[in-house]
Amino acid sequence: MKIIEQAKAPNPRRVRIFLAEKGITVPSEEIDILKREHRSTAFTAQNPLQQVPVLVLDDGTAISESVAICRYFEEQQPEPALFGKGAMGRVNVEMWQRRMEFGLLYRVAQCFRHSHPAMAGIEEPQVKEWGDANRPRVIEVLSWLDTELAGCRYIAGGEYTIADITALVAVDFMKPARIERPGGLENLQRWYEDVASRPSAKA
User: Fold this and answer.
1) Which of 12, 93, 98, 109 is disulfide-compatible with 84, CB 3.0–4.6 A?
2) Cα–Cα distance, 199 to 99 (Å, whole number)
3) Tens-digit pLDDT profile for residues 180-189
4) φ, ψ (nearest 5 deg) of residue 83
């Protein structure tokens, strides 16, 4: 078993944090996206969409998509339950995970992919206007999230979950995306200091 990744990319980091919370160690194989190694014939055979990370099982089965990889390990080792417990618990985590993935991480990633010079040869076409259009949406989501966090410790309630992992990675990815986090969001700052101080955040 191994995970094919690029360590600096946000989605592989989501999986590493998830595994660290579970106490699971999986060997990794690094590829260089800037050198277009994700477009090689060998990697494309593992994931036709040419995206990292990819989990390759011992029998050769390849699993792509970060959340799918995390769900695989949740099934293998249910505790700690990072996808929630019980029907309503899992539904709630799913709701917040999708909000953080599509409402926040996706938009930060679009800013990076369509604005950063290093991505010019990879994101084809690179549309600066689209990157710029996503910046105010990121700030809107953070402001809304600050309000939501006034009543709970973590994104989906009282327990740390994959929704927190996705949100943490998104907030940290704002730096290379050149998005400045607005001041005055005290609840967001309290949450960020909490989750960023967990040992898994260094994975």
Assistant:
1) 93
2) 25
3) 999 999 999 9
4) -110, 10
